[in-house]
What we know:
Keywords: ATP-binding, Nucleotide-binding, Transport. By secondary structure, the protein is an alpha/beta fold.
Amino acid sequence: MGVVKRAAATAGPGPALEVRDVTVRFGGLTALDRVSFTVPPGAIHAIIGPNGAGKSTCFNVLSGVYRATSGRVGFGGHELTAMAPHRVAGVGVARTFQNIALSHSQTVRSNLLTGRHRLTGSGFLSAGLRLPRARGEEAAHAERVREIAGFVGLREHLETEVRLLPYGIQKRVELARALAMEPRLLLLDEPVAGMTSAERRVMAELVAAVRRSLGISVLLVEHDMGIVMRLADSVTVLDFGRRIADGVPEEIQRDPAVIRAYLGAEEADADRGAGPDAPATPPTDKD
Length: 287
């Protein structure tokens, strides 16, 4: 872990992510409506909201899967909305998925090496002929994979096929593969979805360590409000594709618009009638 930390410290903090007035339309449906927020360098920022609020659409725009109808996304002088997914990855943005997207028949080591692909400088011919440069690069990637596996607690599983691992460990493999890309911004799509309470605690500690030890900015979509309130420096709340609140977790938790979005106006009004010391809060379970 120390080597991983030293390498990150050498790189320095990444740039801010600037999302400005992003709109996405699919035919007559507006999935995102002039959404704006900023993720400062080294921060953890959460996007929350009920199902259908536009969270996944937002992530797909940031990772290059969807093109915005209008608006812009800036990251380190790059305009992400004009880039294909592989180019977004090339400027230092890595993503995990709610539904695990790993090569299940391959080992953990092979999956992590896949994350190193964009950092490979040797050409196909050099690699095929096992030229010195290619051999040196291969050894460096192998060592880096071992370091990252140690950082997320996977070193003992490096030679295990992913399909043989418990679900919670598979989620850690996906996080490790994203880290293997050496990102400056990490997009985490429901990182604790489907996990047990113990597995959620481990993942939350890992996400905090990614920011604390590696200095990587993190943008996460998450339904578990306990995780959001514990990890996030700031929160953006979406509802029906619009931003309805933005601020620190304590403010968001008490925001009437957020309470209405999660609970419905009538239930929120009833909860607020319980007294000033018992404010309604968004639910902690998945909606």
